[in-house]
Automatic annotation (TrEMBL), chains A, B:
InterPro entries: Glyco_hydro/deAcase_b/a-brl, YdjC-like. The keyword Hydrolase applies. The lineage of its organism: Bacteria, Pseudomonadati, Bacteroidota, Flavobacteriia, Flavobacteriales. This is ChbG/HpnK family deacetylase. GO terms for biological process: carbohydrate metabolic process.
Length: 286, 286
């Protein structure tokens, strides 16, 4: 049986989770995520426990358990002026941080410095922080897919899913795109998302991000699809965070918000007979 | 000799530092502070090392040593949804934090829980963090004047000033307004600011904050005056931080920014023959 059948749908169903990453990053990100859940087509999100606006989003999560809420496991910080680091004391996970005590900017620096034992310790602490706040997480995923840089590190991620009985988001193609190792990944007994739908910088640059999203929904395949977006407002806070980083920058995030709260998006989902599912549905059958 | 004479001015000079608190708190606060230093009448500021936007402001401080930059020693977090805590591991300073690991909201909770040894350890770490970033601090001051709740705690603050050879901002009347102890404060051998100029909620509520600032400059006395303001923009980020807290809220902070970058303010300073000085000037003579 494939995932659709296990969930009670016909074999060829186009399953889709519409997932907002990066909740907790900023007030702008939180407010856009909340609106996209309440009024838009987004039906799942994940939260960054190390960030300054975690508390605001965690409060929403606790008060609104009807929405899927995952832990956006965080090991890198891509921004120039807005920095975050481990939830554990730096002295306990010093291999994860730069000279200022913040996460490395790139997956390469992370991979070249991070000790697996410290990765596991920090990510466990991130999950425990969310649990301590009263969040009932529905899944785990990985900020910047940093967890996918080597097969050994990906194993930590999979182990955490088993330990906490939570599904982990893994798309094989995505992991192998960002791989920084020649060794083989092991996908045995692993639930894999068949297709990752996500925006590309080339489309953003051409002003065709929204069109690319429409095309993605029009050409969606049967199987287990996950659409990753990053809703936020193109406001001063978000412009400050994403300065000199137009890739997934504030203008991009505003487009994500606009499209996934639009009627066009809802119509596309209906026209293409897309079946929305959640990580909670999956959690029930793994 | 009084301070004016020590600085080479006549005895009855109206000395004034125009000081922006809370840099590092938010992108909005940082940008408004920078503009108020560059284009306005503000000539000194202090930075909160535990906050998410510390890095942005610390980078500005490092690149612009011509402006006074103090360490805004932080032991309380007054906001509802935007939280911060110690720069040290929570396990080392557990008396300073609530059950979620954040600073207490009120001076009373801080006073009732904080161990003096942990206060000293945390504040030392905040100063060391700024030094490690390459900031050359000109003074120390205290967020919410939390350091003034008891004479014993105020002593820690004064000691830190001696250890780091930095002037500390103390206004006797201000300290005794927020006192939470019956014991006597000791001001021997302490440089005291004669007058604190600051906005009051009653004036803000009446829509007369700007007028109260004009009046304060018109009636300024000779001696060592410090004007404390909190420049920021009344934008979405700042509204999110100061939600349900109009006292020093985002609308208030916008008025602070507007007035202290206005020509009216510059004219008042000239008309009243106010002599601007900095903490760096004072640092040179203590």
């Amino acid at each position: 049986m494939n995932l659709a059948q296990k969930l009670g749908y016909p074999e060829n169903t186009k399953l889709l989770i519409i997932h907002a990453d990066d909740a907790g990053l900023a007030h702008s990100e939180n407010q856009a995520t909340i609106k996209a859940l309440q009024n838009g087509s987004v039906n799942s999100y994940s939260i960054m426990t190390p960030c300054a606006w975690f508390f605001e989003m965690a409060t929403f999560a606790k008060n609104n358990p009807q929405y899927d809420c995952g832990i956006h496991l965080t090991l890198t910080c891509e921004w120039e002026n807005y920095k975050f680091g481990p939830v554990l004391p730096i002295s306990e996970v010093s291999s994860l941080v730069d000279k200022n005590g913040y996460f490395y900017k790139t997956r390469a620096d992370f991979k070249n410095n991070a000790k697996p034992s410290e990765i596991k310790k920090e990510l466990t602490a991130q999950i425990e922080k969310a649990l301590q706040f009263g969040i009932q997480p529905t899944h785990l995923d990985s900020h910047m897919c940093s967890i996918g840089v080597t097969p050994e590190i990906l194993e930590i991620y999979k182990e955490l899913g088993k330990t906490y009985n939570l599904p982990v988001f893994i798309n094989r193609q995505f992991v192998e795109t960002i791989r920084l190792s020649d060794e083989e990944y092991n996908y045995e007994n692993t639930l894999l998302a068949d297709n990752l739908l996500i925006g590309y910088f080339a489309d953003f640059e051409k002003g065709e991000l929204q069109k690319s999203y429409e095309r993605a929904l029009d050409s969606i395949k049967s199987g287990f699809n996950v659409f990753l977006l990053h809703p936020a407002f193109d406001d001063s806070e978000m412009q400050g965070i994403t300065i000199n980083h137009p890739n997934f920058g504030s203008a991009w995030r505003q487009i994500d918000f606009d499209f996934f709260t639009s009627n066009e998006c809802k119509t596309k989902l209906e026209e293409n007979k897309i079946q929305l599912i959640t990580w909670r549905d999956i959690q029930g059958i793994i």
